[in-house]
Amino acid sequence: MQLDNDPQDPVWFDSWRGVLFASARILQVADRDMLEHDGFPLTWFDVLARLFDAPPAGMRMQELEELALFNRGGMTRLVDRIEAASLVRREPVPGDRRGVRVVLTAEGRNRYAAALLRHRQVIEREFGRRLTPAQHRAIADALWSWWHDVGPADATQDSG
Predict the structure, then answer these.
(1) Cβ neighbours of residue 83 closer than 8 Å, sequence gap 6 or more
(2) pLDDT tens for each residue of 94-123
(3) Which end of the chain has fewer CB atoms surrounding its CB within 10 Å, N or C?
(4) 3-state secondary structure of 21
(5) In 54-77, which positions are buried (b, 16+ CB within 10 angstroms) versus exposed (e)?
(6) How many domains, in total, are found in the chain?
(7) What is the pTM of this model?
């Protein structure tokens, strides 16, 4: 895919700033809302989401660190706090004496599902209603490769 960005044209930088500022503002609102209504921050929600989508055996800590959107360096301490709230538990990895997997508890699954419903409402209110369907489609198409973790060359083949 050839990019037609002219380094002298600031539109590409304005688009980046738009993504950055929109994300920051919406995440601030979403984090406050989640703390108030669900009792935990977005950093916890991110870990719970990764585990919700993982196989029932859970994930190793390094897998969580690689996939985390918000917190990478302090994952052990973050999981400690989530475990203290009984939303996850650590289990040994069979055949690996030092290996540990993090598994979502039933309470963690329920709390995540409830938080997800409310989170989607907050995102709809703060982001969804601010743009037209055509703008949403343009943004979704333009950023598809980022959330599907493919390179620019792959994106033109996969999103088409």
Answers:
(1) 89, 90, 102
(2) 888 888 999 999 999 999 999 999 999 999
(3) C
(4) helix
(5) beeebbeeebbbebbeebeeebee
(6) 1
(7) 0.81
Max Cα distance, the chain (Å): 57
Residues 56 and 71 sit within 8 Å (Cβ to Cβ): no
List, in order, residues 6 or more apart from 99 with CB less than 8 Å away: 60, 92, 93
Looking up tokens 């369907």, which residue turns up?
Answer: 133
b/e 18-32 (16+ beta carbons within 10 angstroms → b): eeeeeeeebeeebbe
Could you tell me if residue 5 is inside a domain? no
Q: Give the range of the structural domain holding residue 113, as residue numbers without chain letter.
A: 12-139
- Give a yes or no: residue 111 inside a domain: yes
Closest listed residue to residue 140, CA positions, set 123, 159, 124, 116:
159
Element (H, E) at 88: strand 88-93
